[in-house]
Amino acid sequence: MPDSTGKVHWGVLGVAGIAVKKVIPAMQKGEHCEIAAIASRDLNRAQEAAAALGIPKAYGSYQELIDDPEIEAIYNPLPNHLHLPWSSRAAEAGKHVLCEKPIGLNADEARQLLEVEKRTGVKIGEAFMIRTHPQWLRTRELIRSGAIGELHSISGYFSYYNDDPANIRNVPEFGGGGLMDIGCYPINTSRFIFGTEPTRVSGLATLDPRLGTDRLTSAILEFPRGHAIFTCSTQLVPYQRMQFFGTKGRIEIEIPFNAPVDRPCRIAIDSGEDVFGGGIRYEEFPTCDQYTIQGDLFSKAIRLGGDVPVPIEDSIRNMAVIDAIFRSSAHGCWEIP
Question: Do 61 and 88 fall into the same domain?
Answer without folding.
Answer: yes
